[in-house]
Amino acid sequence: MRRPAGCCGGGVFPEDSFASWGAYGRALLETGPRLRDRLTARSAVDVEVHAVRGRSGADMRRELNWWDLAWFGVGAVIGAGIFVLTGQEAKEAAGPAVVLSYAVSGISAMLSVFCYTEFAIEIPVAGGSFAYLRVELGDFMAFIAAGNILLEYCIGGAAVARSWTSYFATLLNHHPNDFRIHATSLAEDYNRLDPIAVVVITLICLFAVLSTKGSSRFNYILSIVHFAVIIFIIGAGLSKAKLSNFTAEFAPYGARGIFAASAVLFFAYIGFDAVSTMAEETKNPAKDIPVGLVGAMALTTVVYCILAVTLCLMQPYRDIDPDAPFSVAFSAVGMDWAKYIVAFGALKGMTTVLLVSAVGQARYLTHIARTHMAPPCLAVVSPRWGTPVRATVTMLTATAIIAFFTDLGILSNLLSISTLFIFMLVAVALLVHRYYASGETTAANRNKLVSCVAVILAASVGTAVYWGVAVDGGWAAYVVTVPAWFAATLYLHLGVPKARVPTMWGVPLVPWLPSASIFINIFLLGSIDAKSFMRFAIWTVALLVYYFFVGLHASYDTAKVLAAEAAAARVEEGGHKAVEIAGASS
Hints:
There is one protein chain. By secondary structure, this protein is an all-alpha fold. The chain has helices at residues 21-29, 31-40, 45-52, 66-77, 80-94, 98-122, 129-136, 139-171, 195-210, 212-238, 243-247, 254-265, 272-276, 285-314, 325-332, 338-370, 389-405, 408-435, 443-469, 478-495, 512-525, 530-585; strands at 181-182, 192-193. It has a two-stranded antiparallel sheet with strand order 1-2. The longest helix has 56 residues, at 530-585.
């Protein structure tokens, strides 16, 4: 007897393991062997690019070029982070040295951009880092990353949407909470309900569903307006600059404050990975993606640092407003009218961030659903619009629910943990990609690679943990951990032969840049507060529960079906060749 569709699937999960209660029970009994299979299973590039992508039915339209990607990159990144978190971190964590915090975060983000760019060219599918990790680290690590990717996008979109409300209120001469509903019965960080954020997300959803190319045009029109406002902020702000504001107490909270701010301000760089998910819709990935991704990140880092300097020159860091820093700074220097231009520019920037986020997160979910780790019905691409409508609506519904309830402070810290964790995994995957090829790399070289990566991770974690717990400023542990990281990277460089050389575009200075990316990302994690790690742990446990009871069995069945189809195709191809040979000989 088949189990009802409402339990575990029916049409939602069409795999054999969910065909009936009995089948599901047998699948659960096989959890151990299936887990061992999935832990070691690695997808192939051809499978991701052709077989997995084909499960969406219609193809996404290839209509984007480097110009579209560059503006998507700028639009994805410059938004709530610079206009909201700059004031918060300058006032409470770093002082004027917040410019150094932005530089550290920017370097970390650029290293990750290099890794993403190489993968996006070689695996040009909508799955982004999820697809890269499936190929290099296997199904299980890819799933853990997938859950955090989806969390990253939902939280990031929610944070930006709530910031949108704040600047909209400023534009109308109101306090942000004037437009929020105070639900006293809810916990303090969840009791300011934000209906405007929900409306904005709904409108963005409509744009993202209708057309990727149309979204691109809308994005770069808004981004051009946004850049005009940024130029105004820099020019007008520097005209009211006082050098004493910047130099009197440049780093009042010391190095610890600078790095703590860097971890939070990494939120301001989040979004560029959404551009890598558009590789499937890019006309010439090998040419367009490097220009679009690297160019956008370089420009963004420079703009962030200049804006941070401008803000700290306008006001003493103690007087900076944590909610609307630029608007209040202009009011403080006698340019009250300018706050309306700032608020307008911030709204434009946050709108583009939401739009690019909506496009990116839907493509992540689409590819995850193609592997059946999420319900495969979410992988469908609309033949009419050429966009993943179901995935877009699903992700933005979740984003709207989070935005309606949750405070920005909780969102930004949790978002940084999730993102830094994913970027670290992508850097590890790049090392595996360059130094390991199944069937070609010897067991000895594979073991050397595993040992080097293990030492790099251990040294990075040791440095981060010591930084997080040792408030007395001692250096004893760093004398061990930093040389260990350097030695492992050097041995990987000199003692392990590369298994692959990129044919089109590759990360320079491998293994040094990916190893540095691992180190910096993990180090920044050590500067995030303990409560955020508790929330991250709860989310990870929830992911594991879903994986062991649903995702593992769905992906296992799907992998077996794919393997059977591939074997049948080989047999059929062999049969055709035999017929051709027989015909030729006769």
